[in-house]
Design a protein that fits this description.
Distance between the termini: 55 Å
Number of helices: 9
Shape: elongated
Strand order of the largest sheet: 3-9-12-11
CATH topology of the largest domain: Multidrug-efflux Transporter 1 Regulator Bmrr, Chain A
């Protein structure tokens, strides 16, 4: 049969069949006119290759399978692919966990809105990193390895949060952070000079800013008023969770959910 018929029977496109032929995985007869005549044996071989490729086994390994009758070598290739798939499944499950955490943050935050505050129980101690830690080689190595498990953070010092409510600009610091349990699960060494935001009860609110160096203090009045009303001064600086970046009229606006601790505890809430 010609290649187009073989393609229809097998569901494998002609170009892929040609690749298999050039790798000697198929052995069609070359005709005088330059075309190839594929046999039923080629069809059986092609279905076998298609099955193996469906398991994501590479062509190099398939060639090895063709060249051996040693069951140990065959099993070794199968087991190698099983191990690879197990690693990929674990990676995808981890990504699913972090996407669920993202979904929870977005749902809780935008439901509250920019004018509202939320008194919340954190899920764990937060580990944040700010200048001058960024210059550390150890830290750079840590970030390169775990950046996908961290989030940009925004720091306002507790002295400002507990200070007078004045409509003035205040300095902010940008950094990045993660939870202690994330570091523990990765069996990673704790980075040096980190800022600990304790596990416990926090006051949280949303802010929107285009300036990552300073902020109008009045934006923080809702959470400051909440602390004063309940007579619970802040015992930590803020941390933050970057929810969204919005571009409007050529300007980037950063939506942060910020929070600061008012009471430490050891309560560990459910994690994704």
């Amino acid at each position: 049969m010609q290649i187009n018929k073989l393609s229809k029977l097998s569901g494998v496109n002609p170009e892929t069949i040609r690749v298999y032929r050039k790798r000697n995985l198929l052995r069609p007869k070359k005709l005088d006119n330059g075309y190839y005549e594929y046999s039923p044996a080629d069809y059986i071989s092609l279905l076998y290759i298609r099955k193996l490729r469906g398991y994501s086994i590479g062509l190099e390994d398939i060639s090895t399978l063709y060249d051996t009758e040693d069951p140990d070598k065959i099993l070794k290739i199968i087991e190698k692919e099983q191990n690879y798939l197990s690693e990929q499944i674990a990676r995808l499950q981890e990504e699913q966990r972090y996407l669920e955490l993202e979904r929870i943050h977005i749902t809780e935050s935008f439901h509250t809105g920019f004018a509202g505050v939320q008194v919340m129980q954190s899920i764990d101690e937060k580990i944040d990193l700010y200048e001058p830690s960024f210059s550390s080689e150890e830290l750079l190595s840590f970030v390169q390895k775990y950046a996908h498990k961290m989030t940009p953070t925004l720091r306002v010092r507790k002295e400002i949060l507990n200070g007078p409510m004045e409509d003035r600009r205040i300095p902010v610091e940008m950094g990045f952070g993660t939870y202690r349990y994330v570091i523990n699960e990765a069996n990673a060494a704790m980075p040096k000079n980190y800022l600990s935001i304790p596990n416990g009860i926090h006051i949280s609110q949303m802010i929107r800013t285009s300036d990552l160096d300073s902020l109008q203090l009045s934006q923080l009045f809702p959470m400051m008023e909440c602390a004063r009303k309940n007579n619970t001064p802040f015992i930590s600086d803020t941390t933050g969770y970057l929810m969204h970046i919005e571009q409007k009229d050529g300007i980037f606006y950063y939506h942060f959910r910020i929070r600061a601790c008012i009471e430490k505890n050891e309560v560990i809430t459910a994690r994704p």
